[in-house]
Design goal:
This protein has 114 residues and is an alpha+beta fold. It has 2 helices and 7 strands. Residues 102-114 have a biased composition (Basic and acidic residues).
Length: 114
């Protein structure tokens, strides 16, 4: 479980989603891109919430470990999305020529369905 601080809010979430969110935010900042990502988290009142993060070059986020024994909310879908986007940014899709001379862009593939 990790403690994520963003825009004067403090949330608890699983290690996998917190780490992926931070890495994705870093890559977006490096490339001057932006995205909105929604994850499940535990608010400071103990309630489970859906938290939408606007990630861009001006986002400020801090992730720290915690000794909480609370079971984190499921973020399997969000982690899959984040890991897909991270992979795509680290290894940009290539462009290949089709037999008819037209170009096929591998980035036409929707990674959210992978």
């Amino acid at each position: 479980m990790k403690h994520v601080m963003y825009a004067e809010k403090s949330l608890l979430m699983g290690d996998d989603v917190a780490d992926a969110l931070l890495e994705y935010a870093r890559l977006l900042a490096e490339t001057s891109h932006a995205d909105t990502v929604t994850v499940r988290a535990i608010g400071m009142d103990g309630n489970t919430v859906d938290a939408a993060f606007l990630l861009n070059s001006t986002s400020t986020m801090m992730v720290e470990s915690t000794n909480s024994t609370v079971v984190p909310p499921d973020n399997e879908e969000a982690v899959r999305y984040l890991q897909g986007r991270i992979e795509r940014m680290q290894r940009p899709p290539s462009v290949q020529a089709e037999e008819d001379g037209s170009l096929f862009h591998h980035d036409d593939i929707d990674l959210r369905e992978v």
